[in-house]
Amino acid sequence: MATIDIRRAHTLDKDEARKRAEKLAKGLEEKLSIRWRWEGDQIHFDAPSGAAKGTTGKVSVDASQVRVEVDLPFLLKAVKGTVESKINDKLDQLVGAVNPVAGPFLNLSAPVAMGVCALACPDGGGVAGVLGWCVDRGDGARAGRAGWALSP
């Protein structure tokens, strides 16, 4: 039994639904290093490495619906809700008959700053120098996403 099982009705012709499903699979191949292949009207996929390592599943396309079944490995089950939400967003884009950006639905997918990815300590500054670097731009204001400077 799949960890995630989502069905979405569509009004596309089957060939168009298959094209869009394949475009989605190609995007996931680039972003998450999944391998995929068509078997009849199903795309079977797995992730042998990368962030989604161990994930398997299939996307079934028929004349009236698209079904996504995903088996998450143990470690990714903790983020099942997030994965399910992203799949729902992508399915809405996939089966929408109009441009996804102009579609009649709310798409909450957006890049979000997640914090510090790397940190370099100034010579002799220690923890105080690092904290000052991350918080103070030098003019007393807090740093935004793009601006920061070393503090004295």
Task: Write the CATH fold name of the largest domain.
Answer: TATA-Binding Protein
Order of helices and strands: EHEEEEHH
Mean of pLDDT: 75
- Fraction of residues in helix: 25-40%
Walk across the major sheet and give the strand order.
1-5-4-3-2
Helices and strands, with pairings:
Layout: E1 4-9, H1 14-32, E2 35-39, E3 42-46, E4 56-61, E5 65-71, H2 80-95, H3 126-135
Antiparallel strand pairs: 1-5, 2-3, 3-4, 4-5
Structure, explained:
- By secondary structure, the chain is of the alpha+beta class.
- The protein has 2 domains: 99 residues, Kinase associated domain 1, KA1 (TATA-Binding Protein); 40 residues, no CATH class.
- 30% of the residues lie in helices and 19% in strands.
- The protein contains 3 helices and 5 strands, in the order E-H-E-E-E-E-H-H.
- It has a 5-stranded antiparallel β-sheet with strand order 1-5-4-3-2, covered by helices on one side.
- Strand 2 and strand 3 form a beta hairpin.
- The protein is globular, with a radius of gyration of 21 Å.
- The C terminus is likely disordered.
